[in-house]
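Hello, quick one for you while I still have it in my head. A protein chain has come my way and I'm curious about its shape. Can you walk me through what the tokens say about the fold? No rush at all, and the record is pasted right below.
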Amino acid sequence: MDRMPLDNLVRVGQLKEEPPDLREFNGLVSSGTVRLKDAKLNQISLESRFDLAYNAAHALAWLQVRKSLFGISMFETYAGIA
């Protein structure tokens, strides 16, 4: 992924750069894999399974973003989204 557009956002204060965090990495892997496993359980409602699968995809996608960008995170105004 080309970092130039993101570097520009860092420069103008829209993003801040953070170092990689092994605990965050492990937490996202754990969160994503546990939720994905639980989403396969037929004993729970379809809505709950969808929610689990969606949140698993979000955790694993965020993991890839953090991994590939070496730790770009959003400012506090967007903290609830990340």
User: Anything to note?
Assistant: The chain has one domain: 4-72. The first helix runs from residue 4 to 11. Confidence is low (pLDDT under 50) at residues 74-82. The chain is about 60% helix and 5% strand.
